[in-house]
Amino acid sequence: MMQASAVSALCLPLAVVAMAGQAPEPALVIVHPGPDMPLAGPARLEVEIAPASVMVRRVTFFVDGQQACQVETRPFQCEWDAGSRTDPRIVRVVADLGEGRLVATRRTSPGGLTFSTSTSAVLVPVRVTDARGAFVRGLDATRFRIYEDGRSQHIASVVNEDVPASILLALDTSASMRAKLPDLQRAAALFLDAVRDQDTVSLAGFSERLFTLTPQTDDRGAQRRALDQLQAGGETALYDSLIRAAGLVRTQPSPRAIVAFTDGGDVVSRAAVQTVRSALQAADVVLYLIVGADAPAAGSPLAQLARIASETGGDAWFAPRMDTLGRHFTDIARDLSGGYLLSYLPDRSTGDGTWRELRVELVDAGRGHRVRARQGYIATGR
Question: Higher pLDDT residue, 210 or 338?
Answer without folding.
Answer: 210
